[in-house]
Amino acid sequence: MKILNRYLAASFFRNFALAAAALLGLFLLITVFESLRTLLRYDASLSDSVRMIASQIPWMAVQVIPISCLIGTMATLSIMAKDGEITALRASGIPIRRLAWPIMLCGLSLSVFCFVLQERVVPAAYSYSREIKNIKIKGMTAKNIARSTDVWLRMGDAIVHAQFISPDRREMKGLQVFELEKGKVARQMNAKGASWTGEKWTMSDISVKAIDAGQGWKSEQLPSLDYPVAPMPEEIYVSRDLPAELSMADLGKSIESQRAQGLSVNDLLVDYWSKTSFPFASLIMALVAVPFAARVSKRAGLWGGIAKGIGIGLCFYLIQMFGISFGRTGNIPPMLAAWLGNLVFALLCARLLVRSESA
């Protein structure tokens, strides 16, 4: 049995590597073509262009590992089926589900690798890629903001604190503005929020406290006020804002922060649980391919198995996208939304493995 395990593992990793290399190459080619317009428009240097695209490779790798596991398993077992090896194994009394054990260990090892890559490498690399694109290539002049929550900005002689900046950068909530004069606070404004009108920022529901010529602090309420609390939206660059740029720990902090401010955290919860489910899709994809590959006919062979694997992979991603979409709208719980694809295919895999011996 150890010989069979080593044989299956070696075949799996060889076919997995070929599938991953092909998909990663395709991903890179698409990214290059999608980036050409931006690179040519801003006359980007070759060095910046290469660094921007190359630093996205870890993120691309995370995306292609699950489908590569599926294709690797399908290719391995389809070749064995075509060569009559699976027939020989079954004639020797070895059940199809026995082949799942070494495949499961291979898939599990790749799931762990994918999770570590996602948490340790992808956030910094993806953030670096976007920084090059927006700061180096597009030339955004705004200071680098670490996150879209609890943001501090220096605007002339004023210091601005915003509890939240919306994803499109056109709305800010929970504002505090400190106007300085000779190093001291001369006026403080607290506002419920501010919105970009297309030409300027307008604050709403404002409480103003200002020093009144030796008479101490004077307070007043204003319904609205035009005030430059931030640069233009297109100049605001948040370096760690997209889910790919945040680890689970970072997302957890953002969830706690937004909950404390009374803001919706549904999208963040879906992203958080997706980071637990997606890496382990590699294990599910490897296992679900076993009963499917065993049914590939000798006539279909390798390419028939790969075609079937791609079809299964597309079904998985459609279910996953369906679950995430419903999770973001609040129709199903975030955890279930993120794990829906894995759960459906895990149940399908278990059912097919049980029935595989009767095929």
Give an overview of the whole structure:
By secondary structure, the chain is an alpha+beta fold. It is 58% helix and 18% strand. It has helices spanning 2-41, 46-54, 57-82, 85-91, 100-137, 248-260, 266-277, 281-294, 301-328, 334-355; strands at 144-145, 149-155, 158-165, 171-181, 184-196, 201-211, 217-226, 237-238. Helix 1 (2-41) crosses helix 3 (57-82).
Offer a few descriptive terms.
359 residues; alpha+beta; 6-stranded antiparallel beta sheet; two-stranded parallel sheet; 10 helices; 58% helix; elongated
Helix-strand blueprint:
Blueprint: H1 2-41, H2 46-54, H3 57-82, H4 85-91, H5 100-137, E1 144-145, E2 149-155, E3 158-165, E4 171-181, E5 184-196, E6 201-211, E7 217-226, E8 237-238, H6 248-260, H7 266-277, H8 281-294, H9 301-328, H10 334-355
Parallel strand pairs: 1-8
Antiparallel strand pairs: 2-3, 3-4, 4-5, 5-6, 6-7
Helix pairs in contact: 1-3, 1-5, 2-5, 3-5, 3-8, 3-9, 5-8, 6-7, 7-10, 8-9, 8-10, 9-10
How would you briefly describe this protein structure?
The chain has helices spanning 2-41, 46-54, 57-82, 85-91, 100-137, 248-260, 266-277, 281-294, 301-328, 334-355; strands at residues 144-145, 149-155, 158-165, 171-181, 184-196, 201-211, 217-226, 237-238. With 359 residues, the chain is of the alpha+beta class. It is elongated, with a radius of gyration of 27 Å.
